[in-house]
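Re: folding output
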Amino acid sequence: MDSILNAAKSWLSDFFDADVKTEIQNLIDNDPDGLKDSFYKSMEFGTGGMRGIMGVGTNRINKYTLGKSTQGLSNYLKKVYAGEEIKVVIAYDCRHNSDTLAKTVANVLSANSIKVFLFSELRTTPELSFSVRHLNCHAGIVLTASHNPPEYNGYKVYWTDGGQIVPPQDGEIIGEIDKLAYEDINFEANADLIEYIDKDVDEAFMSASVANGSFNAKGKDDFKIVFTSLHGTSITAIPEVLKRAGYKNVTIIEEQAKPDGNFPTVKSPNPEEPEALAMAIKKAEEIGADMVIGTDPDSDRLGIAVRNLEGEMELLNGNQTMVMMTKFLLQKRKEKGMEGNEFIASTIVSTPMMSPLAKAYGVDYKIVLTGFKWIAKMIKDFPEQYFVGGGEESFGFMVGDFVRDKDAVTATLLACEIASDAKAKGSSFYKELIQCYVDYGFYKEKLISMTKKGISGAEEIKQMMVDYRENPIKEIDGSKIEWIHDYDSSVAKNMITGETETIDIPKSNVLIYTTEDGTRMAARPSGTEPKIKFYFSVNAELGNAGDFEKVRKQLDQKVDRIVSELKLG
C-alpha cells in the first residue's frame, strides 16, 4: 500500500491541476479502495492504445495519462520523421470528455511542433482512418472506448497507412512513453498548428464510402430500412451515405439519434447485444421493414437483423454477416473478372467457414490475430495483392482498402445492397445465407464472455489460461482433441500423433482446441476489457436448404452440450 500512497502523493505536486489534487487528497483521506484502484498500476499504452475508466490517477483515462502517451508519441514521430513537417489528424466520439481530451491531445502535439488536423465535432472511427491517408498524415488518433460502458474512454493510434499501429511501431512508441515522467509533458499549445476540419473531409469520405459500398442494387424503392446510431457517431455519416446510394425508405430511431455518452436508452451501446437493437426491431415490426441496422458509438461495428424464414426479425451474428458480405464482394469481383491476385482476410477466432468460401472462389485467404490492425497490416505487407474485403466475428467488416479499420458506415451500405438485391430477385438476405451453408458447410458459432473485474479478476483470468495450457482438455462432446494451437508459445501440437508445427504469426495470449470432428474452442483474454472470451464453432453438412431448421437445431444442441460440459454456461 506504501507504493500506491507514494504514487498518489506524487500527483499532489504543483504540476497537477488544483481540482485533480483535491480529488486525490479526498481519495487518500476517505476512500482507500478507490485510491488503490486508481493508482495500483499505470494504465498501459497497449499494442493499439489505451482504454479504461475516466478519473484521476495512473490507472485512469485523464489529461495526464493521455498527455504522457501523446508526448511519447510526439517524441517518436520526431525521431522517425526528423526534418519533416509532421502531421497528425484527431477525431473523437460521443463519450463524456472526448472533446476536451481530444483538445488536450491536440495541444500536446502542437506544443511539440506537430501540425494537427482536429475534427470540429464528433466523427466516426472509419472516417478518422480514411483521413490519415486523405490528408497525408503521419499518424491519426481517435478518442473512443468503442462499445464499453459510459464511464470508459480510450485512445487509439493509427499509422501512416491508416491502420492501427502494429509491430515494430507499437513497441517503439511504448518505449518512448515509458521513458517519461508526467512532468515531461508539454501542454503549452501552439494554436497556429491546430487546424479544424469537417465538411471537406466528410465529403471525401462519404463519396469514397458510396463508391466502395454501392453495387447498383435493384429494388431500392421497395426496400425498408430501420437504422439506429445508438447515441453514437454514425448519425453523422450513415443516413447521408444511404441517401446518396439511393435508399429513400430509411427510418431513423429518433430516441437514439442524438449523440449522448450516457447511452440513456440501452444497457450497453453494443450491437452485439440483442437488447441494444430492441427499439429498432420493434419499429421494424410496426412498419414492416426489411432490415434493421445499429452501430456502436464510434461506428466501427454494426449489428444487423433481417427477416427469417418465418418472417420474423432475427439478429445475425458477426460471422454470418461477414460471410455474406465477403461472398457478395467475391461474386461481384468474379463478374468483373478475377485477376488472380485477390485475397480476403479474417481472424483466428472467427468462423472457419471463410476458408471453404475462399477456396470456392480461388482466392488467397489470410488468417490473422484478433483485431483489424492485423488485416490492415496484410494490405500493407502484400501491396501486389488486391484486398477484396474481410472481417471478424465481433461485428466488424472492411470493404476494400480505402479505410484500414472496421467500417460500419460502408458495411451498412453493403448490407443494404445485398438485401435489396436479393429481395428484388425473389430471395432474401436470410435465404442467401442458408444457400451459403449449403455451398460451403453449415458453421455455427457461439461466444461466451466472462467479466472478471479488478485485481482479483485479472489474476483469475490469468490462472484460467494457465490451467487450459497445463491441463489440456482431452475431448469435446465425445470427439478427441486433435490440435492445440498455442499462440503465446507459437506452437501447434497434434495431440494424437505428437507432431508439432510453428505458428507463423505474432504471439498472442490465445489458445485454440480443435477436435477430430472439426469442433473448435478458443480461449482469449480481452485486450481492452476485464473479460475472458470463449469462442465455439461447430459444423455439419447441409444437403439442401429444406433441412436448415433440422440441422440448425442439431448444431445448437451440440453447442449447448459443450458449454455445459466445460462448465461455462
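--- second protein (sequence, then structure) ---
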Amino acid sequence: MNKVQTWLHGRWAVPAAAGLLILASVATSRLWQPQPWGDLLMVAAAVVAGAPVVRKAWSALAVKVIGIDLLVSIAAIGAIMIGEYWEAAAVTFLFAIGHALEDGTLARTRSALAELVAVAPDVAIVLRDGEQVEVAAHEVGLGEAVLVKNGAKVPVDGLVIGGTGALDEASITGESIPVEKTTGDQVFAGTIATSGFLQVRTTGVGADTTLARIIHRVEEAQDAKARTQTFMDRFSSWYTPAIIVLAIVLGLSTGDIVLALTLLVIACPGALVISIPVSIVAGIGRGAKDGILVKGGEFLETSARIDAVALDKTGTLTEGRPQLTDVVVLDTDLGPDHPPVDEEEVLRYAARAEAGSEHPLARPILEAAAEKGLAVLGLPQHTEPVPGKGIVATLDGHRVAVGNLALLQAEQVEGSEDTGQAAQVVADLAARGRTPMVVACDGRAIGVVAVADTVRQDAPEMVRRLHRAGVKKVVMLTGDIEPVARAVAQQVGIDEVRAGLLPEGKLEAVDELRQQGYTVAMVGDGVNDAPALATADIGVAMGAAGSGVAIETADIALMMDNLLKLPEAVSLAKRTVANMRQNIVIALATVVVLMAGVLFGGVTMAVGMLAHETSVLVVIVNAMRLLRRKEDPAARATGARPSASSSAPSRERVPQRA
C-alpha cells in the first residue's frame, strides 16, 4: 500500500493519468460517432496534466514572475476555448512528461550530494563505564571514546587513541585507496573501516563534522548562481513577456489564434533557463566526488578563466620537513689529541651542539645522527644561541660553533673570509638549493652540513598539467633568498619566481599579476598567505579535510593534500563552462528553428512542445556528461592512477636560520 501511495504522489503520476485519459479518448472516439465523450476525455486529460502547470503559473504571478508555466497555461486554455482539445491535451501531457524526466535527470546531477548524505552515519558504539553502548550518532558527546570495527562507518570526527586499521576516505577526500590509521591520526565521520579496529576520541559530532560541512558547502554551491546564469535570469524576465506580446500581435494581425498559441508554446525558453544551472550542479557534483569543493557557480566560472597560478613554497610545493642532505669535511686534523675528522665526526659535533637548540634546523641534524647510530648523549655544558647566525656550544671543553659564515667571522674562525674554502663550499651548496651550516671547533672550520626541504614528488607534474589546462604562468612566491628560489623553480618547472617576500609582498605580487590582465589563483596555507589569498581572483586551500575554516572560506577547497588536484580543478571548471556554452547554443538553436517553423508553417503546437521538451532533455543529458570522471591522458598512457605522479624526488633549501 505504501508503494502505491508513493507512486501516486511521485513524479510520474500526473503524466500517467493524463496519458490514460488520452488513450481512452482516442478509443472512445473510434467507437462512438459523434464523439462528445472523446472530447470530454481529451479535455479531462488536459486538465489533469495542466492543473499543476496553472497552479505554478499563478503562484509565480503572485510574486510578479512571468515564467514558462504561464506560456503553457495560456496556450492550453486558449486551445480548449477554440476547440483544439487534442492540442491542449498534447501540450500539457508532453509538458508533464518533460517535467518528470527533468526531475529524474536533475536528481542524477545532484547525485554527489545524495551520496554524501547517504554515507552520513546513523549510530555509534560508545565506550561508557567500560561497556559498549549503541547510541544515535548525534548523541555522542565530545571527548567520548567511540569504537570503530571492521566494515563500520566512522560516526564522528576524532583522533585515534588506540588500535590500528584502514579507512576508505573517498567520501571526504575523493581518494579511493584506503588510508592506514594509527594512534594520533585524524579520522572523519562518514568514512568506512575496511580493516582493523579503532578507538577514537570524539572531536566533532553532527553538524560540526567535516562531512556535514562538506554537505552544507555542496548544497550552497549547487544553488549559487554564476554570472552567466544571473544574466540568463534577467534575460528570461523580459523575454517571456515579450513572447506573450508578440503572440498577441501575431494573432491580431493574422487572425490566426492557433498560430499565436503555437508561438507561445514553441518559444518557451525552458532549455535556455535550465542550461546554466544544470551544468553548474553537475560540475560542482563531480568536483565533490573527487574531493574538490567549489564555493559556487560564480567561482566555478571564474576558475575557468584562470591563466596564472601563484604558489606558496613551504608546505605547498615542499613537504615542510627539512632533511640532512650533505656532510662535507673541510679539515681532517684537529691536532694530536684528536682522531682524524671524517663525515661522521663532523655530523656528531653538529648534532651535539644542536642538542641544546630549539631551532627547526636542529631536528634534521639530530635525526640524521640517530639514523647513523652516532651517540648524542646529554646536553652541552653551555649553549649560546646567536640570533640570525647559529649556535655556539661548549662540548667536553671544546668550543663548537654551527651556523652561517657571519657566525664564523664573529668567532674569528680560520678561513672564514669570503674567499676561504668554507665560503666556497657554502656558495656551492646554496646554489644547489641547500641550507648550509659550517661546523667549527676551537677556531677551525672542520666541515659543513646542509639540510633541505623535500620538494613534493608531484610538483613538476602539477606544473606540466597546469600548462596543459591552459595556465600561461605559474609563479612561486617565497620568503627564501633569490638563488635558492631559482634553483627550486628550475627543478619544478616554475615560470616565474618572486623571492624574499613578506606577506605584504605576496599580496603586491598577486595584485600586480591581476593588473597585467591575468586571472589569478593563489594557493597557500591560509595563515601568512591570507592577504594574497584574499586578493587573488580565486583562493585555493589544500588539504582542507581537517580544517573547517578552509572548507567554509576558500573559493576552492582541495580536500586532499595532493598537488595534482589543482590542475584537475582548473580542468573541471573549463569543462563545465564549455558545457554551459554548448547548452546555450542548443537551447537558442532550438527556439530559432521552431519559431521559423511556426512562421513558415509545418510546426504544430504538439510538435513544438515535443521539440521543446526534447531540447530540455538534451541540455540535461549533455550536462550529465560532466558527472563522468575525466582521467588525464598522460596518466592513461602510462597506466598510472590520476592522483599518482611519476616525478622523481628532489630537494630544495629551507630558509636561513634567524
